[in-house]
Amino acid sequence: MTDFDLHFGGPDRPRGYLRDVLAERIAAVPSGGRIDWVTYYLRDRRLARDLVRARERGVEVRVTLDGHPRTPDANDAVCTLLRGALGERLRVVAARTDTLRFRQVFRPRLHAKLYCFSHPRPVAYIGSFNPSGDDPEERPDIVERIGDHDRGHNVLVGILEPTLAAALTQHAKRLHRGSHSGSIRFRPAANRVASAGGTQIFFQPRVAGNPVFALLRSCGPGHQVRIAASHLSGGRSIRALIRLADRGARVEVLAEATHRRVPPKSLERLRAAGVLIERASVPEGLPMHAKFALIEGPAGRTSIFGSFNWSAASQRTNSEIGAISTDPGLWDAFDARWKDLQGPTAATDSSAGVSPGS
Q1: How confident is the model at residue 234 (pLDDT cuts 50, 70, 90)?
Q2: What are phi and psi of 76, to 5 degrees?
Q3: Same fold across 4-186 and 194-351
Q4: 322: confidence class by pLDDT, cuts 50, 70, 90
Q5: Looking at CB atoms within 10 Å, which of 226, 257, 269, 353 has the fewest?
């Protein structure tokens, strides 16, 4: 697994493990180097100060943030901190339509998580982790709404393969300087797939078909598909998994406990189709925010990971990053993490203890 630097966060890891991985990478970039970040939530002021210090020692630092995420004021404190130090190198994506109830129809949410570092070796981290905690935590109300991601289950995959790392860094630059209207899906760059060493990187939104759904359509009898899903609510996603089970594949889903992210109706439809689905049982109600899938079949083993959710907004409008890989070391690591997540006491829907409004 020489082309990857894989890290899992969760209640079985030290608190803030993934944010510390990012802090170490910031510290390792020397004067003349470059850091490009794109993320949905960034509330960690210690990391923000690390970025400021990197800028002060001569690192080219560019940060692109969603200016109006689901919790609208979540990024405000860090934006204030970074704006004075980075100036135009801080891009806060926002639009007048953001205050509308159905604003995702008008502007894709910047849901991608992408952390690029030029030194000591170029690497681009993708996955599910937002640095959404703070220490000291002055807004526990925000953590209550979005979950404690410094302790919950998340994943970061560092892409070290040069072609792929360069493609991801270029994508970060495009997101920093480009428009974030719905027309982004029509651009050639949005519809390209970067490939090297058995791994494909793709971006959403796109006009070209989603490579994950294309892969699922090729599965049937003799295939096992396992999905760790922090969100599972989109009609297209539900139908794709039902058709997959109808074709004879064994489909297992380990879903987040909150009913807002994974509605009971979604579980009912999938169970009725023969999908084996359960909610993750995580201590203290911590989020199961990891997003990955594993496919085994006659042709081999494939792992899927990135920022994208199995939700309508993620498939239609959000800015997302996904990866599909046949790397055996990567598959083994995700397979072991699946078993960790599954654990001995995965919760049924009736025992999850989460209200429908969560």
Answers
A1: confident
A2: -60, -45
A3: yes
A4: very high
A5: 353
With residues binned 3-state (H G I as helix, E B as strand, rest as coil), the percentages for the chain, rounded to 5, are 35, 25, 40
Which SS3 state, helix, strand or coil, does residue 159 take? strand
Token digits of residue 179: 């428009």
**326: Cα separation from own chain's centroid:** 19
Q: What one-letter code names the amino acid at 90?
A: L
**Would you call 4 helix, strand, or coil by DSSP?**
strand
Q: 4-186 sits in which CATH class?
A: alpha beta
* Burial grade of 73 (CB within 10 A; 0-12, 13-18, 19 or more): exposed
Strands 60-66 and 34-39: parallel
Q: Look at residue 207 and give its three-state secondary structure.
A: coil
357 pLDDT above the threshold of 50:
no
Q: How far apart are CA 61 and CA 293, in angstroms?
A: 32
CB 54 within 8 A of CB 61: yes
Point out which residues pair with 204 in neighbouring strands. 320
The residue among 189, 222, 204 whose CA lies nearest residue 314 is 204
Three-state secondary structure call for residue 332: helix
Give bridge partners of residue 110 from the DSSP assignment: 319
Note if the pTM is more than 0.85: yes
Q: Where are the domains of the chain?
A: 4-186, 194-351
Mean pLDDT of 328-354: 72
CA 112 to chain centroid: 6
**Residue 278, strand partner residues:** 254
Which helix (H) or strand (E) element contains residue 175? helix 162-177
Across the range 21-31, mean pLDDT stands at: 98
Angle at 214 between CA 294 and CA 69, to 5 degrees: 75
| Superfamily covering domain 194-351 | Endonuclease Chain A (3.30.870.10)
With 90 as the cut, is the pLDDT of residue 188 above it? no
> Token digits for 270?
């999938």
